[in-house]
């Protein structure tokens, strides 16, 4: 036995040494490339001193390329090299651009059958797979980029369909040191030789080793162990819409992120238009945002939480479920459309119209246009008259001309008759006012016989009136520039909101919505919820932004030399905003939606606007949806994705939860979505979930159980409570260290922990109509251990199993 172990160890050491030699060779080559890049930089600097425009432009281009190259080479990734495949001879002898042979099928004579009936073959090609491709000086591939076609067999080959792959090896390394190797034999029946020696096989299960590893608060890439069904999604063609379904832990998020890196590799030029990854929560953004840099991709991908999609807005609060249901509903479109127009009118006679930007109006030479007894629209004219009354008076051609409330109302109605965004209608409104004043002045009649004279007189009239400060002040107050936040703030007035929501929302819904929007304050600047952000985006579209002349401040040196046309890579990098690698774009070339099942209709509209001309990858699991009206959301999703053809994939294996945890979660799935099959858990740990019951002091019980879990696992512990218990739970866990976090049920989405403590399942299930699905999410976060802690309302049995989780 001891002798056998010694042999295994020596094979392992020898094979580790083989890979160490290869990695050393790779680093020698990388060092050469770094020296080349540095030389290019220095050379470019010399050219810069020559100073002719041609030399400067050339310098810039060279510095840009060399800088990019250096950046990539200098970042020493963990697991830079992570894979190797040993291949049979291919059918045709052609090499691809990465230097590897292209054929997938073995050549006819690649495998011999011996007299003993066994099969034999010689390995014809060995490829190493890593995060970026490296060619030797003679163009032989030292490392193949994981996204290159030649790397696909590393992920795709299975014993049933091995193609040319005989042995697949996962190499573990740190910096420049190879730590170990793990092999899979794809043709175990075959005796294969490499350089005359029989192919060695080391270890079993690189995937299992990866899955068993302790978790931290950031997600790792899965580049060395992507599974075949996942690889198909990652490499699916970019065109139109790719939809990916699959239960918890099947790798949907991981696959979506790897797909972003793959698409950039495939067609960098096309995706220079940017890739947007939309995540439901900032916590999930923080958890996932390190994955792309670890794959060597940063610049073109923006990962944004739903509450951070609108420039300048950041959601910091949650709405209670009943309010969220109203704000997220597609019905809000109609309410916002009316609010965007209705907010032009003052709420009260002594206050400016809702949401106006800028000036206060000062001494206005006009009267409140909405006052007067003859309102054709009683709802909008219900404002009592006040210090500002409803008339516009100007002096033209020495005579007073006046427009009364009814005329002004007519003019506004005509101006609003166009579908153009409200703020962009101001010039039209101004023109209509001038038309009306002109007509009323009677001047048109005086020149009726001479159109040329009439046109001249009209021009002079317009100039006169427009030049009057009183006319400007009137226009500013009567048709102010509205802001989305301002309109949202105006909707906090229940009476006005009631008018705008008539026949769309129920009175109870209006009351709840207005109450919630009070948080924004009268100017709309208060804290926003995730759902408010989608409303702001809708309003932005309805209101529009009038164009303003842009001032660009020129560096005095630039003015002298015209040098602003020539910048270096370093200049541009320095100008980049430090907090956001990618400038906020209005639209993207590809949009990836993670946890798509959670998007409310208004959020789909917001995301849809960012991908009107994009290709899409949409990943999600309906069984985990926290949105209460899936049908309404499906309609909005269809609208956002349009008529593009769809390609659908389903991931079937749960890589996160051990079978013991998955079994408990499946009980809730059966209640939440009867008939839906859970994904199959890939491993089992023998660690049965614990059921505990809290006595009188729930906080003490949570703290004690969290302590116990912290002692049992090396990594993280997530404590999931109902949303309204979040603050309390944070206090319960105070001082227990950074490995443990308290999460509201909606915040647990997409995350995972070594151990999870789910507190009062019934409390979570009763939170909203989607509560059971939210509970299913909570129960599927653990990679090793799960404890369910019941309170009285959970009606636990003698074993502590709550009512919801019993057979
Ligand atoms: N091929 C793989 N190799 C190693 N780990 C994997 C693999 N596929 C998935 N995992 C791991 O499984 C866990 C779950 O993956 P991920 O979060 O992407 O799943 P998900 O389908 O998005 O889950 P959920 O629907 O619950 O959010 C992660 O830790 C991920 O790294």
UniProtKB/TrEMBL annotation:
Gene3D superfamilies: P-loop containing nucleotide triphosphate hydrolases. ATP binds at residues 246-253. Signal peptide: none annotated. GO terms for molecular function: 3'-5' DNA helicase activity; ATP binding; DNA binding; hydrolase activity. Residues 339-387, 620-641 are annotated as: Disordered. GO terms for cellular component: cytosol. Residues 225-658 form the UvrD-like helicase ATP-binding domain. This is Helicase.
